[in-house]
């Protein structure tokens, strides 16, 4: 179980106060009053207009951003109560895929993907892998899930933005993490690739029993691929519902004054749910966000 209770994250409105970690009174909330539970192996999408706090929420779940108040608990442990080194080791159990994967430009794809193994490898093995990559079959299989098997030895800076984004996702498949936190994985992908990538990511998470929390701008993808959807707006939880219960009216309210990010919401009802990635036949994309 992964749980947030009464969580709040602030951002400074002025210069930082004297005390380390404190912003003084001159703050505004990025996230507030967030109480959410994620069951082991659950797949949850987070949607909401730009600036709603989706990325910050994932960073909090990844213990990359420390909450200003409230608690984060995972597997009965409150990680921020751990000593620093223990917290660093503990972070090895989760995988955070940022929207733009941090891939060194001259690196080979194989090395970039095998970086998913770093939490499991010793320092010596990690360094050796930079020069003599091992576990090529595992890397190739992960790339294959994202239709990139032929790119194994290409240089990262020779890939398109969408290919780089898929390499970042393939890296998750090499990790032993029990929690995948994926931030806007489809922003550089065309609709067909986006459908494929989403089906692969959700299919792999389901097969491994991994907990997956994914922020998305593409509402139709969230509704089609995820059993549960969180709607976030101005740092607050607007709804936490099964995807089948998310109505066009709720979406309109969530994106009020941000309608350009949610075109044609009534067609959301037409989105078919995808239960089996192998049988998936990409439907037309009725909504276009961003
Ligand atoms: N380190 C920071 N310092 C100050 N403000 C921040 C910081 N990080 C985020 N914010 C602010 O918090 C708000 C939420 O940002 P966040 O990136 O979490 O939203 P988002 O929903 O992921 O947005 P988008 O969909 O545009 O990526 C924004 O107003 C942003 O400017």
Automatic annotation (TrEMBL):
<dbReference type="InterPro" id="IPR003593">
    <property type="entry name" value="AAA+_ATPase"/>
</dbReference>
<keyword id="KW-0067">ATP-binding</keyword>
<keyword id="KW-0472">Membrane</keyword>
<dbReference type="InterPro" id="IPR015854">
    <property type="entry name" value="ABC_transpr_LolD-like"/>
</dbReference>
<dbReference type="Pfam" id="PF00005">
    <property type="entry name" value="ABC_tran"/>
</dbReference>
<dbReference type="InterPro" id="IPR017871">
    <property type="entry name" value="ABC_transporter-like_CS"/>
</dbReference>
<feature type="domain" description="ABC transporter">
    <location>
        <begin position="2"/>
        <end position="259"/>
    </location>
</feature>
<dbReference type="InterPro" id="IPR027417">
    <property type="entry name" value="P-loop_NTPase"/>
</dbReference>
<dbReference type="InterPro" id="IPR003439">
    <property type="entry name" value="ABC_transporter-like_ATP-bd"/>
</dbReference>
<dbReference type="GO" id="GO:0005524">
    <property type="term" value="F:ATP binding"/>
</dbReference>
<protein>
    <submittedName>
        <fullName>ATP-binding cassette domain-containing protein</fullName>
    </submittedName>
</protein>
<keyword id="KW-0547">Nucleotide-binding</keyword>
<keyword id="KW-1003">Cell membrane</keyword>
